[in-house]
């Protein structure tokens, strides 16, 4: 049953690539999220404006359009700019890199909001107290801010991860052989589209279930120091 | 620049289809979501569990997989569908797109409503029962109107996500905004100019939807705002 007419291995290869893309994209999203949250909370108006523009624009444009812009648009843009300066070059993007960078860039905007909320959830008094006993900014961030921010951010980041892993299926449109793309190829070859797409959907469902379990464990772990009634 | 200018009318047509598909799916999804949310909260496991499974499936899998499952997957059952006369629907990309979008948004919306219905303060339900309201009247007058208000912020996000999800229907060759942009690009080889223009269209539509919801939210929360200060107006008149 799991053999899928000899195409089971193809789906398995796809799953591995899907997870690889998702993990790389999540790393990008976390990094951009931290930078974005720092920008939004910064006292400099220019940084605030930049971070605000980033989240506003990303949330208003579909991922598919952004993937197509990055994969097809950016290389031609570079070529056009080079052509006006008198260079004739050919730029081509690797679909893996274009894929995870775009997905990471999109979900970085969502992670920004999560981190900003988590920062604001840390009681001000604790930060003041840390400075009062003479901690430096870095020590304060390391010992007071970040350990508590993770706790507040974890539910939101779990949601971002679960939406992100589903969004990786869109990278199939730029021919990256991840789960969705490989399923499509196999379904066309065997002419059993329902069987194959249903199998793929169950694999995505399984990834979601595993993510939910890990998230719950993670939240218990992060909240182990909180008193409960 | 001239290309963008010339493409604007066609992009506008595409945007109209995007709005149309979104509006139809939102309306149908909303109609389905309220009963689904009530079934999801039912105490009868035979009603609750199938709805739970449906919601879980559609929230846990990517939209593009659902779309391919319905559009291409229905081809596997072509003979059966033909014999019951449903094939004329399933062979249309438009029908499959709207069907999948509706099923998808109904699942997300039902879950939003479930949370909102559970968020109605118990004291209000108790008070309604104390007044002798029947179950139907209780739902119609107390629980659903209150839940609708509670659900509105999360629901506006869902509508925005749905609007953006519709761009995926361009993959099954529907000429929505993304689809039109892709067709023009296939002929003109100017990807970034047209995709960026399409992105601006989406940006405007997204913030248009959010603006409408803000108005609705304001309109529905009149009882929570402070009464306008009459003394100021009275003083001005004097």
Key phrases:
A: 229 residues; mainly alpha; 0% strand; flat; B: 238 residues; MetI-like fold; 11 helices; 80% helix
What is the fold's blueprint, element by element?
The complex is a heterodimer of chains A (229) and B (238).
Chain A: H1 8-41, H2 45-60, H3 63-84, H4 95-121, H5 124-132, H6 137-167, H7 179-190, H8 193-222
Chain B: H1 2-40, H2 45-60, H3 63-71, H4 78-83, H5 87-90, H6 93-118, H7 122-130, H8 135-165, H9 177-188, H10 191-220, H11 230-237
Helix pairs in contact in B: 1-2, 1-6, 1-9, 1-10, 2-6, 3-6, 6-8, 7-8, 8-10, 9-10
Largest interface: A-B, 40 and 41 residues
Helix content of chain A: over 70%
Proportion of residues in extended strands of chain B: under 5%
Distance between the termini of chain A: 49 Å
CATH homology superfamily name of chain B: MetI-like
Number of domains of chain B: 1
By CATH reckoning, the class of chain B would read Mainly Alpha
* Shape call of chain B: flat
Low-confidence stretches of chain A: none
Estimate what percentage of residues of chain A fall within beta strands.
under 5%
Determine the N-to-C terminus distance of chain B.
59 Å
| Most strands sheet of chain A | none
Largest sheet report of chain B: none
């Amino acid at each position: 049953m799991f053999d899928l007419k000899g195409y089971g291995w193809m789906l398995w290869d796809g799953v591995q690539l899907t997870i690889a893309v998702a993990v790389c994209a999540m790393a990008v999203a976390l990094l951009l999220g931290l930078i974005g949250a720092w920008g939004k909370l910064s006292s400099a108006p220019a940084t605030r404006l930049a971070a605000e523009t980033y989240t506003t624009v990303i949330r208003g444009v579909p991922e598919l359009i952004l993937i197509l812009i990055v994969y097809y648009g950016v290389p031609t843009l570079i070529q056009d700019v080079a052509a006006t300066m008198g260079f004739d070059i050919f730029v081509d993007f690797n679909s893996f890199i274009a894929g995870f960078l775009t997905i990471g860039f999109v979900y970085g905007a969502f992670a920004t909001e999560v981190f900003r909320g988590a920062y604001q959830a840390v009681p001000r008094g604790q930060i003041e107290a840390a400075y009062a006993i003479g901690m430096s900014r870095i020590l304060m961030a390391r010992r007071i801010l970040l350990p508590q921010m993770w706790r507040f951010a974890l539910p939101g980041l779990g949601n971002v991860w679960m939406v992100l892993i589903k969004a990786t299926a869109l990278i199939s449109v730029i021919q990256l052989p991840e789960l969705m793309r490989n399923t499509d190829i196999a379904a066309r070859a065997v002419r059993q589209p329902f069987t194959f797409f249903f199998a793929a959907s169950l694999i995505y469902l399984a990834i979601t279930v595993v993510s939910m379990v890990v998230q719950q464990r993670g939240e218990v772990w992060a909240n182990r120091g909180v008193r409960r009634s | 620049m001239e290309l963008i200018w010339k493409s604007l009318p066609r992009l506008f047509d595409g945007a109209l289809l995007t709005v149309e598909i979104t509006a139809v799916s939102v309306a149908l999804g909303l109609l389905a979501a309220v009963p689904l949310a009530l079934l999801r909260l039912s105490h009868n496991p035979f009603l609750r569990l199938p709805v739970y499974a449906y919601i879980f499936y559609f929230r846990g899998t990517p939209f593009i997989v659902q779309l391919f499952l319905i559009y291409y997957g229905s081809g596997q059952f072509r003979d059966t569908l033909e014999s019951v006369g449903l094939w004329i629907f399933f062979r249309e990309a438009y029908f499959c797109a709207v069907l999948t979008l509706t099923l998808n948004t109904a699942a997300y919306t039902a879950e939003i409503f479930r949370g909102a219905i559970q968020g109605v303060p118990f004291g209000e339900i108790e008070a309604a029962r104390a007044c002798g309201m029947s179950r139907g009247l209780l739902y119609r007058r107390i629980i659903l109107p209150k839940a609708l208000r509670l659900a509105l912020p999360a629901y506006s996000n869902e509508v925005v996500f749905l609007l953006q999800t519709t761009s995926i229907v361009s993959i099954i060759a529907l000429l929505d905004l993304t689809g039109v942009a892709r067709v023009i690009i296939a002929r003109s080889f100017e990807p970034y100019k047209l995709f960026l223009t399409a992105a601006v269209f989406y940006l405007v539509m997204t913030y248009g939807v959010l603006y409408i919801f803000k108005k609705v939210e304001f309109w529905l929360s009149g009882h929570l705002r402070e009464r306008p200060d009459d003394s100021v107006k009275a003083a001005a008149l004097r």
